[in-house]
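Researcher: Re-running this chain for the archive, since the previous output was lost when a drive failed. Same request as before.
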Amino acid sequence: MRRIKLPKCRREYQGYVIDTSKAYYIFIDKTLTYDPAIDTLIEEWAHTIAGFKGGTENELEDHGAAWGRAVSKVKQAYLKF
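Model: Regenerated structure tokens:
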């Protein structure tokens, strides 16, 4: 994981995902400390598992039931690690 300084247009977020159709790229704000960065990574990773297509502005669509289930599964796996 490499954290970066988020562009001005993305600073309202702690992280985000870009889907290039070949791969997902997850960006995490470098100003976050370790625990919030891990939580953000888990949530962004959940977007990829839940089938996030990127570019939507609909908060409910991006954070629906499928995303919630994915967050739960990823967090459980992390806690077992």
